[in-house]
Amino acid sequence: MAERSFKAEVEHLRKGDGDVFTGEGILAITKALLENGVGYVGGYQGAPISHLMDVLADAEELMGELGVRFEANASEAAAAAMLAASVHYPIRGAVTFKGPVGVNVASDALANLCSSGVNGGALIIVGEDYGEGSSIMQERSHGFAMKSQFWMLDPRPNLPSITKAVKDGFELSEASNTPVMLMVRIRSCHVTGSFATKDNVSPPLTVKEAIANPQSDFNRVVLPPMSYVHEQDKIKNRWPNAEKFIVENGLNEVFGPKDAKIGIVTQGGMYNGVIRALQRLGLADVFGNTEVPIYCLNVTYPIVASEFADFCKGKDHVLVVEEGQPEHIEQMLGNFLYKAGAKLKLYGKDVLPMAGEYTGQVMLDGVTAFLKKAAPDMLPGQVRAPNKEAPAIPDLSKTVPIRPPGFCTGCPERPIFAGMKLVEQELGKSQITGDIGCHLFGSLPPFEIGGATMGYGLGPAANAAFDGGGERRAISILGDGGFWHNGLSSSIGNMVFNKSDNVVMIVDNYYSAATGGQDIMSSRAKNETKATNNPIEKALKGMGVEWVRTIDRTYDVGKVRDTLREALTTDFRGPKVIVASSECMLNKQRREKPLRNKAIKDGRRVDVPRFGVDENICTGDHACIRLSGCPSLSLKKLDDPLRDDPVASIDQTCVGCGNCGEVADAAVLCPSFYRADVVHNPGGFESWRAGLRNRIIGWLQKRRDGKRLRLSGTAPAAPSGAKAAPQPPMGALT
Amino acid sequence: MNMPLQHKTPDARVEQIIKLAIMAVGGQGGGVLTNWIESLARSQGYACQATSVAGVAQRTGATIYYIEMTPASDQQPVFALAPAGGDVDILIAAEMMEVGRAVMRGFVTPDRTVLIGSTHRQLAVSEKTVPGDGIANAEEVRAAAEIASSQLILADMDRLAVEQGSVISSSLFGALAGSGALPFPREAFEDAIRASGKGVEASLRAFAAGFDAAQNREAVSEPEAEEPPLKLVGPAKEMQKWQALVDRAQALPDPVQWIAQAGLMKVVDFQDCAYGTTYLNRLDDVIARDSADKNWELSAVAAKYIANAMAYDDIIRVADLKTRRSRFARIHDEMGAKDSNLVELTEFFHPRAEEIASMMPARMGARWEASPGRMAWLNKRFNKGRRLRTHTLRSFVMLHFLGGLKVYRLKTRRHEVEVAHLEAWLRDSLAVLEDDYALAVELLKNRRLIKGYSDTHARGLTKFGTVMGAAALLKGRDDAAEWMKRLREAALQDPEGKALDGAIKTVRSFV
Is B331 a member of any domain? Predict the structure, then answer.
């Protein structure tokens, strides 16, 4: 099951006319889909729209009542392909995935879909993973709309606007026979707010009804000569129809005074940022009533030339606010102006940065820079001539460490990388590629394993150049999510077919974990509506991989090390695949902790393991941490005046996964670690035995203590002046 | 320019928007805190908007939540989706370096920002992996936070919450209430916790602790160490001998006395009073060559590191420490075990041929170590991980026996090696004393490089050798001591010794 349950929130999806919905953007989108008579939904998880998939999964019962089909697609390509149902049938369909990487994967199906055109409204909801919090390369999905000719909605980031965009999107799609992409940025997906709800609407034609009356029309198939007709149809009919719909229904919005000499054209998603900058400059009030006219593009593709020309009428200076690069919209607007022979000055990426997120400060600086050139009198005096000097705040950039994401406490992937690190120390560095998923954190310190990632499920494919073999075998890492997404065919199939001699480490944590713990084919959970429990090994064998080793407990670092060593050194020729499986700890804890607490409460015997470090045995060399990086394995400064360096210490968040002990053993580190199992509600015999043991042990201890001196208590605080000078910070040495 | 529009005074209502950012480490419950604040604001008649950047970045990484609120009216205000530098009213940072990050990103400004931070540390990976001490300087962050904020509330919010059986989001929420930065009564905050319906009682207790911490800013101090001071205890006869040693130590020059007593305790705990006498004799040799001119710095440093060198980590010491009564009690406490619980212990040992040979009588051990065949045989027999369940009699008795081998310790191969190493180190360090006092001090301090077990220990010894060897290069230079110190610091920067190699190259370039 997914990391976050929306079961409670899903009830809000039943609200009807006259009710008000308050909650997260993503949930609002789901509600809007149901209000607009969607017939089928699907998608593939990935931040920031993972929760949309989770909400849909949790709302399956409600959707069933309405006759809406939900599909958890195998990939973004599969999701986009599903929209084929709207090509012939007048059924509204919506799919969701992240952008632009999900759009990359989906682009094959999207291009075909766009060529065929649609009859029922087709909506692609894309969570644009750009800026702070993004986990992918910084690109835009916008280019895909331009190349395949589908329309792009980028609504203002508030719930009424986002939900209206769902309605507009379906209608625009149907009016122009073109799929529509609804783009929501990271923060819009998670923005909270309210909107007035309407009753849910069953689809006029359900997919179940449609299949009773199958339809086909070769004119819609992407084959010559129809494909040439499709292209002409896009330009001659679909595009003009779309523009007409956009203008007639006022999809784009104009705010502020009509007769000003300046104006701002903004993507809908940037609207709040623009308003905040204007608010800070005293040019807009709290409700967004602005002194500077704004042309808000809730539709960022296509741009309607006539509408833009109307906005520009009488203006001398116009700023384009367009996040990301390249500046597609600005180029297009410049083109319009040039061809119209306009004299007005267009600003954009000259006053705003070409690359990077348009944060509050960036936007304020950009709008200020624009106004300084276009209308300096509008700026508050303070901005024109700042007189107050900001107080100097000490520079902390050398003090505050970076904190990239990493493996969670008890993560089953950590011991895999510890084992790989040990093999590296033994046999030397290998050529290693990573994949998409939590396991990519293995490329960061302390492990630094893996040097490239080429896409989801493409880890082994990214080592294909080395498939011919050489002095040392290449290793690639592949997650279970990536395996089922694309890896089975593109990576494993590629290796088998090309007689690769390389090694694959499949990291199987039972879920699509990085995206929030959604079930996949090989998940061990029982899922009412999905077929799980399909072992990866079986798929590998089916693909023709002969050398397969399974590790069913990744915490066995020694086994991971030995198995990988065998894969790298065996005489066997051909792909060698290791499947290392243990459940994602985040999900395991979520599942087991309540059960455990209940069992303890009910008086049943429960054994709770946790690790500890004997601080007087630890010498403070931190070798264990360099093979772990676990958040619960940290450092502690002792009061002991004889000790210089902090020692290892395990806090109470430890889940007792066992990695510490395994690593200490496999890497022959030190005997400081111990595991303490606290046994709740022990049995009678057990208690009696423990009592006996304790008495004997206590007697032995007492006997020895009677003969020798020993330390007791804790180290004294140093008398003032006597304590050794504090150690200098670890300065960089050039 | 002919402008129809002129600048107007900013809308006062814009200034009324309360902007609140939360900076946390993924997994700290920033989302829960955000939800509480949001429902609190709505319950008090405010329009409120929250955003976050969820996703994989939240897996233990730095993460941020942002909330804006203003009194509700019939029109919907336009809120921003992200905090802007210089425009944040309340900044909550759930960890000390996140406090620093907030200041660094410009979200904390003296004109407006109430900064509520937790002083506890959740170390970043880069701080932990350094072989030496890589922990970032929290005092620098505190100093910067004091300058940057208009009002500063710093307390160990994590401890306050954990003590109440809750998590940090509760104590931070309490501190927010206690700060008075939001115009809502305490009861409204508590109602928000109640409405969420999960772990309410513990959350309310932690909330109260955070509230008090914010209200009595001056009074909040770190808990006083309640543990009794470190001392030696044992049978009366031994204590008499011990007292004689203490008397001797108290006669040492002032600056040496305190550290020498700590050292003395360590070596007597390691072996016995006779060993303590050896320690003081060694120290006396150094003191005899030192003087009050330099405030006995050399002797104080020697007192520290001779003790560390003499109390080396052999199997006997580890076995002794693992089987002490105080340890069992300490673990019981640390694990939060109740009397009705049993605590079972597993130790992780991995002896190799080296450890076995080092336990042999000195001459025999030397012979075995010199013979690869015998070492291979030992490895075959002993080299594997051993999990000892020390709560069971079998394992306990075995370790107890090993820990009792002190009488035999001074005859072992390990002791012979350690003594030789210690004497060589003292000799080499003091050899430069007449020419360069400061260099001698630094050479003594190089002992810090020796730590760890097995391979880590071996690498430490190699680094120690490299750094000590550099004395020959540096001798006679005015900045020899300074460079020796830099070399040592370089050696502590990474396990492989890359920084050290670079530093040695630098030294070679100028000598």
Answer: no
Are residues A193 and B80, on separate chains, in Cβ contact within 8 Å? no
C-alpha of A121 from chain center? 27
Joined together, the tokens standing for residue B343 give 């605590």
Q: Which residues of B fall within a CB distance of 8 Å from A716? A: 229-230, 262
Helix (H) or strand (E) holding B128: helix B125-128
Q: Classify residue B330: in a domain, yes or no.
A: no
B366: number of Cβ within 10 Å? 15
Q: Order of strands across the sheet with A253-255? A: A253-255, A294-297, A262-267, A317-321, A345-347
Q: What is the mean pLDDT of residues B386-413?
A: 96
- Read out DSSP for B298-360? HHHHHHHHHHHHHS---HHHHHHHHT-HHHHHHHHHHTT--TTSEEEEEEEE---HHHHHHTS
In tens, the pLDDT along A648-662 reads 999 989 999 999 999
Structural domain including B116 reads 14-219
Contact (CB<8Å) A134/B57: yes
Please count the residue pairs, one from chain A and one from chain B, whose beta carbons lie less than 8 angstroms apart.
487
Contact B55 A134 (CB under 8 A): yes
Do the Cβ atoms of B1 and A404 come within 8 Å? no
Q: At what angle do helices B413-431 and B362-370 cross, to 10 degrees?
A: 90
Cβ within 8 Å, pair B51-A190: yes
Residue of B293, B235, B196, B51 lying closest to A132 (CA atoms): B51
**A588, A514 contact by CB (below 8 A):** no
B46-52 sheet: strands from edge to edge: B46-52, B62-71, B18-25, B90-93, B114-118, B151-155
Question: Order of strands across the sheet with A475-479?
Answer: A432-433, A475-479, A503-508, A576-581, A547-551
Number of CB atoms found within 10 A of residue B97's CB: 27
Cα–Cα dist A132/B53, whole Å: 7
> pTM above the 0.80 mark?
yes
Phi, psi of A124 (to 5 degrees): -115, 110
- Assigned domain for B494 exists: no
Q: How far apart are CA A278 and CA A363, in angstroms?
A: 9
Q: Which of A267, A670, A692, A707 to probe by mutation at the B interface, max B CB count within 10 Å? A: A670
**pLDDT band at A388; cut points 50, 70, 90:** low
ipTM: 0.93
Does residue B46 lie within any of the structural domains? yes
Which of A358-367, B20-29, B473-482 has the least mean pLDDT?
Answer: B20-29
- Closest alpha carbon within chain A to B327: A614
Lowest mean pLDDT among A178-182, A331-335, B338-342: B338-342
Q: Name the residue among A75, A184, A185, A97 with its Cα closest to residue A133.
A: A185
Are residues B133 and A444, on separate chains, in Cβ contact within 8 Å? Answer: no
Q: Are the C-beta atoms of residues A176 and A86 closer than 8 Å to each other?
A: no
Chain B residue numbers with beta carbons less than 8 Å from the beta carbon of A680 are: 340-341
pLDDT in tens, A584-633: 999 999 899 999 999 999 999 999 999 999 999 999 999 999 999 899 99
Q: How many domains does chain B have?
A: 1
Q: Note whether A378 contacts B84, CB cutoff 8 Å.
A: no
Instruction: Report cis status (omega within 30 of 0) of the bond before A326.
Output: yes
**How far apart, in whole angstroms, are the C-alpha atoms of residue A725 and residue B295?**
14
The H or E element spanning position A283 is: none
The three-class DSSP label of residue B116 is strand
User: DSSP alpha helices (H): ranges in A250-303?
Assistant: 271-280
Chain A residues near residue B108 by CB distance under 8 angstroms: 393
pLDDT tens, A448-487?
A: 999 889 999 999 999 999 999 889 999 999 999 999 999 9
Residue B78: which CATH number? 3.40.920.10
